[in-house]
């Protein structure tokens, strides 16, 4: 190998990387401590970036439809487009939170109160049914008779547990105050940082491109920009479609359950809307919980709910989901299942949500690489599909 400038640079980089790897492995505890400290410092900014990403999706929608190219020819309108769009999104978020806090939460509290009464009334019926079925088995009958349910006592125990737990965790009013102040300050910093990103996103994007092209070769820099654009479009499409689809599905359940006079319509509808954010498995989890709650009130209505769920699930899967979400992530169903399974195993519910767009981006990039390789070899991809 010639010892020219390029090869010498590669050798120096390899030596530096090897030395750094040895130090990391040798002092891994100190390295982890430093990384934890750095992570604690940058966490507000990471949280702010996440908030900005979520808010940017509806903000772009408002900015694109409210301030069209014709409107933005006016200089004043062009300057006001981004602040007005951001203010509109913040008003929508505040409005939704207000409705949830003052409209939905009180109804959910009442629902949980009625749930305790339903369980209390259901236990004697279940015990009578169990005695009839297992009347020949004394041990099972004794076990059934020993089952007792006192909703008030359970609530009291839960409150005591929370009080004791809070006392053990916080230990003092000072510690509690410090924890609250720390959490509030972290959120305020993250929120202000998110607002700054959203108001200055165009300028920040240009600055990031300048830095990228200044320190990275042009071909690689263009590839990074292309991958970043693909990642953003995939994540935003998935987030928009999934949230809209979940809201529609939850509303359908609330409306249908109210029409058929099924109990816990609001509670079950909201729960299904939240669980529907989890692809594939989420809605079925909501069905199981809803069927269990209704079963304790009326087993026949629980059966009606399951039939209703299957009907609405077919409508949602065949009519709503393809139009609302469609192929927004461009990922075949088998890979969606794999992404959900792997993401759930690694990071739980959050992993299920973020791994679909991540795998979708990787799938799109790999497909593009495969097509380029086939083109270089003179193979037509269409011929291989026959």
From TrEMBL:
It holds the Pfam family AI-2E_transport. One of its GO terms (biological process) is transmembrane transport. The keyword Cell membrane applies. It comes from the Bacteria. Coiled coil: none annotated. The chain crosses the membrane at residues 12-28, 34-59, 80-105, 179-199, 266-295, 333-366. GO terms for cellular component: plasma membrane. InterPro entries: AI-2E-like. Keywords: Cell membrane, Membrane, Transmembrane, Transmembrane helix, Transport. It is a multi-pass membrane protein. It is found in: Cell membrane. Belongs to the autoinducer-2 exporter (AI-2E) (TC 2.A.86) family. This is AI-2E family transporter.
